[in-house]
Write a structure and sequence with these properties.
The chain is an alpha/beta fold. Helices cover 39% and strands 16% of the residues.
Length: 469
């Protein structure tokens, strides 16, 4: 027997009872999540510091504040989101009721990553609860201190009949995926995403895959170099570069590279001091395996800034690489560390061609004082998200969907999009049992003379279009 079969069955029984459907229940569970964030804030700060030396300021901003914003936005709007959405009707159904009901899927599985172990676990959970589902939550075993914290304390806040935390390594997680879930939400690497999708396919389970990729950052010649350097450095080195939407590499002209390098050096010193290893504002790589992988990428191109490492503390300095070739190892995988390669291009068209020749990224950044340049990059490329003249900040808007495209992911969430992700839009037509004479034209024996009447009663007509030449 699968070790988690009983757990999934218990949660399914709770969901079938209808316990999670009332708005009052959903609100109570969401408010309990809010208490978890408030009461366990110090524990979260300590656990993330132990796992990856994450500065408290970064934890407050990227883990706790974002979760609280998502939670408040959901509580403010849940009543509206849950309402039936009435739709247009044809002539024959004018006396009936036609609407879309937002039904919960049932028992969902949420698998979180290690790099933002609170944010990327709880934000999907907020959507699952808001939509009326039961949920199995699996935090990453790599961020082991946060995993322990979530496993030991979160169940004390949520209804144990409807929500459960499962701790599991690779082998146990594989067994967990063998169970039939009604929806799976996964955040992690594309390679593991394929495993999740394969397991989901056996039960025809829908999935959201929040993956990653190499996010390009094009810097045009007409922009404020000082501001660009500060915003790019912040986005790249926040959480020691272990961010799925961090700018992964810069594309710019050779002339801009010469201006950008001293500006980046100045920004790094401003943020982390002359020796970032001593800075309390710079995180560490999460584990030895990840440290070895990221350190090996330093052999690509030439180090222009940084490059220092310390194995014992898993420290890699904020680093900028130049003379990077397209086939260098640093350009073959998502870096997920504090390394920023710069690749020179002759023009904006070459930059766009470079971006379009690769897998579509999770985020795409462009810096330019010219709106025409920004719009051209936006119109001629494809990515999960887009941000001009800054990095990462589009993630802070609950009004924008977050998700990838192609290799960088499948599906979307945040704000209302989280509620919709975990809701099945169920179509409903409620007709009266009387007025049978109105149905006679559609019944056999068929008569061709009835067709014009039926078509007029059921077909949607195209509106008249006035074209001004």
């Amino acid at each position: 027997m699968n070790p988690h079969e009983g757990l999934v069955s218990r949660l399914r029984a709770a969901w079938l009872s209808g316990k999670t459907r009332p708005m009052e229940y959903r609100v109570a569970q969401l408010e309990a999540l809010g208490r978890f964030l408030d009461e366990k804030k110090q524990d979260i700060l300590e656990a993330t510091a132990l796992d990856m030396g994450k500065p408290p300021f970064e934890v407050e901003l990227s883990e706790i504040s974002i979760c609280r914003s998502e939670l408040n936005h959901t509580l403010n709007n849940l009543g509206t989101w849950m309402k039936d959405e009435h739709v247009q009707k044809n002539w024959v159904t004018q006396l009936d009721s036609a609407f879309i009901r937002k039904d919960p899927y049932g028992v969902v599985l949420i698998i979180g990553p290690w790099n933002y172990p609170i944010n990327l676990l709880l934000v999907p959970l907020i959507g699952a609860i808001a939509a009326g589902n039961c949920a199995v939550i699996k935090p990453s075993e790599i961020s082991r201190n946060v995993e322990r914290l979530v496993a030991e304390t979160l169940p004390k806040y949520l209804d144990k009949d409807c929500f459960a935390v499962v701790t599991a390594g690779v082998e146990e997680a594989t067994r967990l995926l063998e169970n039939k879930f009604d929806y799976i939400f996964f955040t992690g690497s594309p390679s593991v995403g394929r495993i999740v999708m394969t397991a989901a396919a056996k039960h025809l389970t829908p999935v959201t895959l929040e993956l990653g990729g190499k996010n390009p950052c094009y810097v045009s010649d007409n922009c404020n170099v000082h501001n660009v350097a500060r915003r790019v450095a912040w986005g790249r080195f926040f959480n020691a570069g272990q961010t799925c939407v961090a700018p992964d590499y810069v594309l710019c002209s050779l002339e801009m590279q010469e201006k950008l390098l001293p500006a980046l050096r100045e920004a790094i010193t401003e943020f982390y001091g002359p020796n970032p290893q001593e800075s309390p504002n710079f995180a560490r790589i999460v584990g030895d395996k990840h440290f070895q992988r990221v350190r090996a990428l330093l052999n690509s191109g030439n180090v222009a800034i940084g490059g220092q490492t310390d194995t014992e503390t898993r420290y890699i300095a904020p680093t900028v690489l130049v003379d990077v070739q397209q086939d260098d190892p640093v350009m073959q995988e998502e870096i997920f560390g504090p390394i920023l390669p710069i690749i020179t291009v002759a023009s904006m068209d070459d930059a766009i061609a470079f971006i379009n020749a690769r897998e579509r990224p999770l985020a795409l950044y462009v810096f330019s004082s010219c709106k025409k340049v920004v719009n051209q990059v936006l119109e001629q490329t494809s990515s999960g998200g887009f941000c001009a003249n800054d990095t990462i900040m589009h993630m802070t808007l609950t009004s924008l969907p977050f998700g990838g495209i192609g290799q960088s992911g499948l599906g979307r969430y945040h704000g209302r999009f989280s509620f919709e992700t975990f809701s099945h839009p169920r179509s409903a037509l409620l007709r009266g049992i009387g007025r049978e004479a109105l149905n006679d034209p559609r019944y056999p024996p068929y008569a061709a003379r009835r067709l014009p009447l039926l078509r007029a009663a059921t077909e949607t007509k195209r509106r008249a279009v006035c074209a001004i030449l």
